[in-house]
Design brief:
By secondary structure, the protein is α/β, with parallel strands linked by helices. Helix 1 crosses helix 9, helix 2 crosses helix 5 and helix 7 packs across helix 8. It is built from nine helices and five strands, in the order βαβααααβαβααβα. It has a single domain, classed as Rossmann fold, CATH 3.40.50. Strands 2-3-1-4-5 form a five-stranded parallel β-sheet, with helices on both faces. Helices cover about 55% and strands about 10% of the residues.
């Protein structure tokens, strides 16, 4: 089975994913997605370029992707008679992600964290998409525990900045609303279940029941 996990920054998606992978013996695909995308892609895109625009590692805004993509399309139109094969950046990113995520899913028994996995794998019978939610106060607490050097105010700012990027990224590539429960089979509140480990144990039980 293939599990996709999404959620806002600090909600507990990462620790749940790690614990769930440990319980089930599944492979956790996170940064590996980036590496595989570059290594196995038929597109001529350097790893540094992909990381620059990536959801988790990247620094570029979606508006920058759109501007560069439109510039490439204009170039294609101007040079049409010269038969230049230029693939706009947004289309290249979209195809790389879709191809790699499905390739990883084809290998079975894995957990895919973020990167619009619920969208790119929608329609597959072997996929269970999970949304992790959490109160803002608990998200701030989680980030401060992960990064003790941050103050409460700094943690709050980091959460807002990261969530803006994730929302822009998801909306840009899927044209859907980020963290919409309708896009997921299960929505789970980490703290109400007693923390990440308890939430992972709960999910593991549900997944094992589905596998029978």
């Amino acid at each position: 089975m293939v599990i996709t996990i999404g959620g806002k920054y600090g909600c507990g998606g990462r620790p749940i994913s790690k614990k769930l992978a440990e319980i089930l013996g599944y492979r956790l695909c996170d940064d590996e997605i980036i590496t595989e995308a570059v290594k196995n892609s038929e597109f001529d895109m350097k790893e540094e370029t992909f990381r620059y625009f990536d959801e988790g590692q990247g620094k570029a805004s979606m508006s920058e992707i759109e501007i560069l993509s439109n510039a490439q399309r204009n170039y294609m139109n101007a040079a049409e008679d010269l038969s230049f094969d230029v693939i706009p950046l947004d289309r290249a990113m979209d195809e790389i992600q879709g191809t790699i995520l499905n390739r990883l899913a084809d290998e079975g028994n894995c957990i895919l964290l973020g990167r619009c996995a619920d969208y790119y794998l929608a329609g597959r019978e072997d996929v269970l998409s999970i949304l992790v939610i959490e109160d803002e106060e608990n998200c701030v607490k989680n980030i401060m525990e992960a990064y003790p050097e941050l103050s409460e105010k700094e943690a709050g700012k980091l959460i807002k900045k990261t969530n803006r990027r994730r929302e822009d990224y998801y909306s840009f590539f899927t044209c859907k609303r980020w963290c919409d429960p309708e896009n997921y089979a299960i929505t789970i509140n980490c703290s109400l279940l007693g923390g990440a480990d308890k939430a992972a144990e709960f999910l593991a039980g549900a997944i094992k029941a589905l596998e029978k």
